[in-house]
Amino acid sequence: MPFDPELDEAPQLLARAAGAAGARPDLTQGGGGNVSFKLSGERMLVKASGVRLKDVTPAGGYALVNYGNIRRRIAAGPGGENEFSDFIRAQALPVKGAKPAVPSIETGFHALLNTVVIHTHSVYANILNMSAEGYALGRELFPAAEFVSYKSPGPQLCSAINDRARASGPQVFFLANHGLAVAHAGTGGALELNERVNETIRRGLSLPPYPGVEPAAGLSGRNAARLAHYGRNFILENILSPDQFLYCGPEALDGKGGTEAVNEVLTALFYILDCLKALKFTPKFLTKAEVSCLGAMKSGRYGAK
Ligand SMILES: [Zn+2]
């Protein structure tokens, strides 16, 4: 019998976590970020690929997967990019009244952690994740947190998280050049932990308020001005995150194509670069090899998160 979302509280709790994280452009931009909720020892709800966090509802926008199989696969060595992604897709189970959904590319590491996982591309965490000084400072602010060096999204990142993951207890992961993941036994606890980490960084570094993302047909006025300040070539040649690489290519910087996500990602990027400059921190850009690895993923199965 397929899972019936109307007979279970979990889809509502999942949508609550997704709504809280997804409503904030300082925490999630474009299709980035994801949340999950474990129903049992084997079953988990996780944001569907290509769905924005704010569009997850109790009735849809998520996939039901057998995360027990995913954990066992990662423990055995997840294998290559495409095989791992096909394996995760194959773990999707039917949900009553919902169209078949593809689980997020990041489902793998959700499977490894406590009951509720909130993963965002928080600009505050990323100020630590994207600077040379951030690691030491992060260790000071969050002595119990885990700091994972940069891995491309997919099997490599899952293996790195698997080495430090605990199936119970609260946990905070800083993912270099990527984002933040918090895990907790309950939705309220996970939301509070997520908020506490972000506020600790904001206050600790006296960060300025996050600018609003103005709706615009092309680039927003603010983004166009910051792009002129840093220079188009600088932004194309210096990549801080997979999101920057995927969303902010030459055409996007010219204001062509769908621009809502581009404006969100650029606003985050410029906020981070501006803060690093004000703090006199050194940005830690991805290496050429890391960027070319993302290029291969972009033309492969990785696209929407
Ligand atoms: Zn992510």
List the bound ligands.
Answer: zinc ion
- Tell me the strand order in the biggest sheet: 4-3-2-1-5-8-7-6
How large, in whole angstroms, is the Cα Rg? 18 Å
CATH superfamily of the largest domain: Class II aldolase/adducin N-terminal domain
Number of helices: 14
The secondary structure category is alpha+beta
Gross morphology: globular
Mean pLDDT: 94
Tell me, what is the CATH class of the largest domain?
Alpha Beta
Could you say what the CATH topology of the largest domain is called?
L-fuculose-1-phosphate Aldolase
As a percent range, the share of strand residues is 5-15%
Number of strands: 8
> What is the ordering of alpha helices and beta strands?
HEEEHHEHEHHEHEEHHHHHHH
What does this structure look like?
The protein is an alpha+beta fold and 305 residues long. It has two domains: 5-204, 3-Layer(aba) Sandwich (L-fuculose-1-phosphate Aldolase); 221-299, no CATH class. The chain is built from 14 helices and eight strands. The chain has helices at residues 10-22, 67-75, 81-90, 107-110, 123-129, 134-141, 155-162, 187-204, 221-230, 232-237, 242-247, 250-253, 260-278, 288-299; strands spanning 34-38, 43-47, 62-66, 92-93, 116-120, 146-148, 171-175, 179-184. The chain has an eight-stranded mixed β-sheet, sandwiched between helices. The longest helix is centred in the C-terminal third of the chain and has 19 residues, at 260-278. It is globular. It binds zinc ion.
